[in-house]
Amino acid sequence: MARPRANHNNVYEVRPRKDKRGVDLISDELPFGWLWYGEPKAISNAIGYAKFYSRSHDAVIRVYDECAEKL
Question: For 11-63, what is each residue's pLDDT tens digit?
Fold first, then answer.
């Protein structure tokens, strides 16, 4: 009897920092739980990191604005 495979999705959140210095990439998959991006292309770089490191399995990437609303 075959066991069903667990549906494992990595979930990443891109949220603006409260100090207005870039964005945080937040996930349980990251070694410290979050990464800080402060350069001019912070959002696209955070999304690129999440896409690259989850390429072997499905991922959910949520991007939020300053009001904590999902975009």
Answer: 999 999 989 899 999 998 888 889 999 988 999 999 999 999 887 778 899 99
Domain boundaries, the chain: 10-63
- Kindly give the residue spans of alpha helices, DSSP state H, lying in 1-71: 42-53
Q: How far apart are CA 12 and CA 61, in angstroms?
A: 5
Task: Report pTM.
Answer: 0.78
Closest CA to 47 of 1, 15, 69: 15
Distance from C-alpha of 24 to C-alpha of 29, rounded to nearest angstrom: 14
The C-alpha angle with vertex 35 and arms to 65 and 52, in degrees rounded to 5, equals 90
Please give the backbone phi and psi of residue 49, each rounded to the nearest 5 degrees, phi first: -60, -50
